[in-house]
Amino acid sequence: MNILIILLSIFIIGLLIAIHELGHLAFAKMFDVYCFEYAIGFGPKIFQKKGKETVFTLRALPIGGFVSMYGETEDLPEEYEKLEIPKERSLLHVAKWKRALIMSGGILMNFVVAFLLFVIGNTIPYSQISTKVATSENAVLVSEGHILIPYRTYDDIEANYNILSEVEIAGESYYAAIYIHDFNDLSIENYLEFIPTSNLNVTNLDDLYEPKEEMTISLPLTFAESYDQETQSYVNEYTVTFPLQIVYDDSAGKYKYEGLNFTLTKNVYRRSFSEVIVDSGKDWGHSSLAVGRALVTLFSPETFKNVGGVVAIFQQSTNIFTNYGWGQYIYIWGLISVNLALFNLLPFPGLDGWHLLVIIIEGVTRKEVPKKFKNIATAVGMILLLGLILFITVRDIVGLF
């Protein structure tokens, strides 16, 4: 199954790239800009098909794509030098608003595709966990018929968890959280996690607390008898403090939690049509904000160490499918589509955002940015981007071992 999911992931990556470039091509054709080539990948051609005037190609390196348009560079590409193309079909001879739409077409398409993927994912029945809590001493289910209230619900790029309370362990402050990363294993060690309060943006399970000594943790949990929809508030809240013990298990050769009995039950639900649309809109908004925040701090040490490339995508998507099923698997691709859109919006040479920035500068100054400067900046930008992709890919591969 993993091989099939990896092959499916490769296909979806190619599809997202193809749709992105199709957005550029569609707007270029709409405004009658001459397009030499529509390419998926870079490097040597391994397949090509000639359309009416555009050549559709598949290239050897599957790390992106491009649409080659008349007017992007100072000279015609070598293989098209003999063509006689009217100047009015040049990218530089269309109105600036049209050129902006052409350059942002891929970004728009990725946003649309992301929303559609969220819609598809939300139509699939989803699992929700209901919780009962007891101490091992009296086995009385404190939350039977009652609601366990999260201190806070936190959505991260790679994680979704409910923070239950704040606790102190060995002099350090942690959030106790239900962090379910495998719906097939609902043992307490798999979902009760302690997250450093100083690093709430945890995306790596290695950052979570690992029991290293025997001790007792006082774990306060808040419950309510019910939830009032009209007032949107909990009814009769109360807090119970549970003694959670960390003991060493000789048979397993590791520390484990005892003294607390969480009973998690997986329930399956299906959304109505209106819920699908509303939830998909929320997913679109939340993912855009999450990816946007990550991109703003992209080169900070904390964020950059968690950045992954194609290899990491294959690994994560396979794990998500194995543990969560089709709904979350499709959701993660919607998130990746949002990522592609926002990443391309960055004003870095070689990306769509760079071309949009040039158009804005030219519109404000009413002067054309020198073609030589644009060509050099784009070439340098592409070299840096390819270098970054290569570095992240090598790091991901090394991290597998």
Q: Terminal Cα separation, in Å?
A: 21 Å
Helix content: 40-55%
* Overall geometric form: elongated
Count the beta strands.
Answer: 14
Give unreliable regions as ranges: 136-141
Task: Please summarize the sheet with the most strands.
Answer: 4 strands, antiparallel
Your description of this structure?
This protein is of the alpha+beta class. It has helices at 2-30, 96-123, 188-191, 273-296, 301-304, 310-324, 326-344, 352-365, 371-399, and strands at 35-50, 55-69, 126-135, 147-149, 152-155, 160-169, 172-178, 192-196, 215-224, 226-228, 233-235, 238-249, 254-258, 260-269. Among the domains are: 2-23 and 95-123 and 327-399; 126-269, no CATH class. The chain has 9 helices and 14 strands. Strands 4-9-12-13 form a 4-stranded antiparallel beta sheet, with no helix packed on it. Strands 5-6-7-8 form a 4-stranded antiparallel beta sheet. Strands 1-2 form a two-stranded antiparallel sheet. Helix 6 runs antiparallel to helix 7. The longest helix is centred in the first third of the chain and has 29 residues, at 2-30. Mean pLDDT is 80; it is low at 136-141.
